[in-house]
Prior knowledge:
The protein has 408 residues and is α/β, with parallel strands linked by helices. Helix content is 35%, strand content 30%.
Amino acid sequence: MSTIVQKFGGTSVGSTERMKLIANRIVEEKKKGHDIVVVVSAMGKTTDTLVQLAREISSNPSKREMDMLLSTGEQVSISLLTMALQEQGVEAISFTGRQAGIQTDSILGNAQIQSVDTSRIRNELDKGRIVVVAGFQGETSDGDISTLGRGGSDTTATVLAAKLKADRCDIYTDVNGVYTSDPRFVHKASKIASLSYEDMLSLATMGAGVLHPRAIKYAKEHQIKLFIKSSFEKGMGTLVSVEKQSHSEIYVIGVAFKENIARISISEFEDGDSLQAKLMLELASRHIQADIYKQYFNNVLTVLIKEKDLQDVLSILHKEKNNLTYRNLEYENGLAKVSVVGRNITSHPGIKEKVCKVLLKNKVKVKLVGESSISVTAVVEKSEVYIAAERLHAGFGLDFIVTEQVHV
Ligand code: ADP
Ligand code: ASP
Ligand code: MG
């Protein structure tokens, strides 16, 4: 019998009405004869509300208690959804991350899954039950509850799909597929029928929040087919899978952006390369994602991070000031990154130039421009990010495409 993992995000389980609706979908799939494992997120904006509650009590809550708190959101969803399934006359059982056998490392708040003991899930599937698992959480080797970082339910779903050797992993969300840019803000974005793990990973890494980058890496490693579909309407959605043909040419896939970015600029250091390497290691060991640019003309190291990581990174920098050998730093938040995402981008110098031209023409203030093989990224004020994304989408000819990628 084939196994299918279905993941439903926050909006999809945002109310009891919606839970009843998706219960129909799950039962429909079960009736086709598959074993079904369902992974769910917390209802609607529950996780944001829980974060806010913690902030009302402490500006720097302990990571252990934060994870204890945040994991409760998913627990509400699994029990309610399981009740909705039982109401439909099917057998179903809910599991927390720990009950599902998910073990993580001990980086609380941003933990990575280390192993999954699927025996309990398998047991229940063998009894003909639908298993509903809380996304975004696991247990450390000390027995504490850990969470996987925001958007982490996608990772729970793909990891379970791999461990259970599932035929596919269906990601149900509030859009009907992956688009050339975020369709909520870039109105001329168009749906991509299928794309490779690599291209999906590039889009997600640069900010396309429809899938968590870690989930895509995992799916790629284990060749799990991902279907991104709407929870509310029927249709094909987007397939993310292995590349059908290898592409060596340059092309632009889409425009992605990240909001709530902070910048730290470090100056007056002795050895910039060693500072950059040490800092990268420090941040990586805490799973903090950062872009670090060295500006040679003024000898400044610029670090771009999520605003939520600012306090952590500042305290690392202060604590390690002597080891990192720098004298000055300054920072600001309220920024955003907007990226033109594609392949072999650096081998086409015209792309960076065009990004600058388009933004300049539209009077968007550009604070910094960086490039990598998958993107040209401009740092802008948060208030200008949507207009920047729309203009770049148009500027790179993405407004009217029907094909999967734009060749430049
Ligand atoms: P879920 O709660 O289901 O995990 P998310 O909010 O994490 O949903 O992801 C879905 C959202 O991703 C969409 O509402 C959309 O605004 C956003 N998004 C960003 N970039 C893209 C893109 N390129 N294609 C589709 N959706 C995108
Ligand atoms: N509930 C968590 C979040 O809001 C995890 C998830 O939805 O994937 O980030
Ligand atoms: Mg998500």
